[in-house]
Amino acid sequence: MSYPAEPYKIKVVEPIAMTTRKQREQYIKDAGYNTFLLQSKQTYIDLLTDSGTTAMSDNQWAGMMLGDEAYSGSINFYHLQDTVAEYYGYKHVVPTHQGRGAENLLSSLLVKEGDYVPGNMYFTTTRAHQERNGATFVDIIIDEAHDSQKDLPFKGNIDLSKLEKLINEVGADKIPYVCLAITVNLAGGQPVSMANIREVSKLCKKHNILVMYDATRCVENAYFIKDREPEYKDATIAAILKEMMSYSDGCTMSGKKDCLVNIGGFLCMNDDELYQRASELVVLFEGMPSYGGLAGRDMEAMARGIVESVDFHYIHHRIAQCRYLADKLEAAGVPIVKPVGGHAVFLDARAFLPHVPQEQYPAQSLAAELYIESGVRSMERGIISAGRDRKTGKNHMPKLELVRLTIPRRVYTYAHLDVVAESVIRLFKHRDDIKGLDMVYEPKFLRFFTARFEPLK
Asked: Which Gene3D superfamilies does the UniProt entry name for this protein (predicted)?
């Protein structure tokens, strides 16, 4: 395939670190072999996350200068509210400092002890908030999503039979909402089809269960619908996005992804009573309902980012960058999750390091070795991210043991991705030399952020 050129030109540049292998060996040791604990200045190409790492546009930076920092009733809030209504279709929006602030509000408002929250594969912070409020997460994604080599157009789809089975087993009154992620991060950035979204909405309406999206990468999902569902091939990204959101009752949003900003998020809903309750609770956790932990300038940048995000040339290039890196790796025989998703390329650490058992953290080992090899920072998405069962204390043992090479929006060029590909390929050629790790410090919550490791002797 052909890869489109960047649909932007570079106006401001930021120098990046150039380090030696000896330096990197010391840096990763000091960081406990956890790439999250490395310093930015120690990193050459930073593919740790696409969250908050966007390069904002000149239009967004201009908007930052128009921040109305009134404590209540900022004009930027009303601009954000109007933009959300226009592009997503929701009646109410509650700003939060980032996506997990919205997750906290949603779980606190709707979840009670003994509830079950079904979703198309867990996400770390989302599940943590659900469990903190007493719910049990139930994975209802299609089985194929747990197989890295299954090449399906919509591996993020919900298995309707699994959802119906759960409803019959526990009762609809024990299910406060279905958490539908668009796209599914931990499956490899996999999208959900419009057809599946419609069927989920229909089933939930039948049982009076809310559908709440994790809409963090909803624009990427809209692109895949345009690309892979024939009836939408001539539709605009904006039109697909608006229809997609119409099948839900609300959403949590980390604006640090598809809203193209460095900080911010929001909780949306159409129900007036739920909005009133959210407005009361946000004051406790975030701030006034008209700013919720954000400066006026940040809300303005997010409103403008929403408009920019639905530009076809922008999102086409973004998806193409992922495909470019994936194609380079696949041509060299490097095992990756298929098909490539919208925000990252995921290395299959099980297949990459078959000699390292899951209990020795192969994905964490691979991420650390990639940093030593080249200064490229990536992140683990496997047994460490999955955490422990809150009742038994045993490790969750996910079928997918992955290293995520996450591409920030509008930051790197194809030449940078060439460097990444060459680094991974070099590592693949001497993969038998890579050993596992021992976890020497484990925090109680979300351990992948701050856990520390040592190489096994």
From this structure: Aspartate Aminotransferase, domain 1, Type I PLP-dependent aspartate aminotransferase-like (Major domain)
Catalytically active residues are 71, 123-124, 214, 257, 381, 448
**Helix H or strand E segment including 408:** none
Vertex 438, ends 365 and 343: CA angle to 5°?
35
Question: Does 357 sit behind a cis peptide bond, omega within 30 degrees of 0 on the bond before it?
Answer: no
Q: Which residues of the chain have pLDDT under 70?
A: 1
Q: How far apart, in whole angstroms, are the C-alpha atoms of residue 61 and residue 238?
A: 23
Q: Cα-atom radius of gyration of the chain, to the nearest Å? A: 21
Q: What is the pLDDT of residue 1?
A: 67
When the pLDDT of each residue in the chain is averaged and rounded to a whole number, the result is 96
- Give pLDDT, residue 47: 98
Q: What is the value of pTM for the model shown?
A: 0.95
CATH of domain 58-309: 3.40.640.10
Residue 173: count other Cβ atoms within 10 Å of its Cβ: 11
User: 21-50+312-455 has which fold?
Assistant: Aspartate Aminotransferase, domain 1 (3.90.1150)
Angle subtended at Cα 270 by Cα 268 and Cα 271, rounded to the nearest 5 degrees: 115
Please give the Cα distance from 347 to 356 (Å, whole number).
15
